[in-house]
Amino acid sequence: MENPLEQFAIKKLYPWQAGGMDLSFTNSSLCMLITVTVIVLTLLLALRKRAVVPTKGQAFAESIYDFIRGMIGETLGQDGFKFVSFVFTLFTFIAVGNMLGLLPYSFTFTSHIAAVGTLSVFCLILNIIFGIKHRGLRYFHTFFPEGLPWLMAPLIIPVETLSLLAKPFSLTIRLAVNMSVGHIMLQVLGTFIVTMGLFGFIPLVADMCIIMFELFVTLLQAYIYTTLSCVYLSQAISDEE
Amino acid sequence: MRESTSDTEKMAQRIAAFKHKQKQAKPKRSDIAKFWENAVRVAVEFVSPVFIGICIGYLLDKWFDTRIIFMLILAIFGLAAGMLNVYRTAKQIEKDIDGSK
């Protein structure tokens, strides 16, 4: 039986060392590049005719945009509409990356903590930058709320710092674990289809059901990741303690 | 000309009726799915700071060549941060539920 974790192995396609760092182009990088290409080409194709009465493609692209706008309206309010392009990019990148990972012989880069973690840390840095930009020095009250006695500082500051640092971690773990588990289940059941011979149709049916479920999970996880990123962003830019 | 105006009005009425219908038929996510989503969210929010605290503590212990002092202290801080996160998440969920009613 093939190891179900082998599908997550990073393979170097073009080894490249620079300044003592490994900057090789891997199968994960290739899949990210394909994901970006698919998104850009689909949107360019869908929006090539910008008509008042939209074509099917334009309506599809606009519905995603409306969906993201609605999500931002719910979590960030009117002020958040300037983040539409960022959140749109985040959602489409994760959703398409998840979906392309379901194709045979492809690679799910969203199942890697390193890939998703980098994205989450980038989101955290953006949160801090926008937080400081919106609230100025008041942003640092996140670490030590106003009105507390200074004696509490050695207790509150580490707790709030850990709470902030845990945000990208929880975002990463949720997405990476969900994607990994689904793919491992698919692989294990796929092996049973061959080894069970005549009764292989039982795991085949189960595999088909799981693929349908995984398709739903890919979009759901992208939605949860994006919504929580918006919630964290709203916490960073709002003055509520 | 008059005919085209009445057509436009009819179309506007149809769009308004469709929008009204769509608003009323807004599908509600099942309560069970929402419950699991929230449960997983709360669990992850609780565990994450503990894990981060242990990781940073481990690195600090390695750096200062101490035994498990930093790991222990930061694990306790992580536990406190986890509880704080759970409280904040629960408040957020409560706000969401109140908002959807």
Describe this protein's structure.
The complex is a heterodimer of chains A (241) and B (101). With 241 residues, chain A is mainly α. Chain A has one domain. Helix content of chain A is 66%, strand content 4%. In chain A, strands 1-4 form a two-stranded antiparallel sheet. In chain A, strands 2-3 form a two-stranded antiparallel sheet. The radius of gyration of chain A is 22 Å and the shape is globular. The mean pLDDT of chain A is 89. Chain B is an all-alpha fold. Chain B has one domain. In chain B, 88% of the residues lie in helices and 0% in strands. Chain B is rod-shaped, with a radius of gyration of 27 Å. Classes of the chains: A mainly alpha (241), B mainly alpha (101). Chains A and B meet through helix 5 and helix 6 of A and helix 2 and helix 3 of B.
Q: Report how far the terminal alpha carbons of chain B are from each other.
A: 47 Å
Strand content of chain A: under 5%
Number of strands of chain A: 4
Major sheet details of chain A:
2 strands, antiparallel
Q: Assembly state here?
A: heterodimer
**Largest sheet data of chain B:** none
Quickly count the helices of chain B.
Answer: 3
**In which range does the helix fraction of chain B lie?**
over 70%
Into which percent range does the helicity of residues of chain A fall? Answer: 55-70%
Q: Spell the H/E element sequence of chain B.
A: HHH
Radius of gyration of chain B: 27 Å
**How many structural domains are formed by the residues of chain A?**
1
Q: What structural class is derived from the secondary structure elements of chain A?
A: mainly alpha
Structural class of chain B: mainly alpha
- Could you report the average pLDDT of chain B, rounded to the nearest whole number? 82
> Average pLDDT of chain A, to the nearest integer?
89
Overall number of strands of chain B: 0
- What would the principal axes of the Cα set say about the shape of chain B? rod-shaped
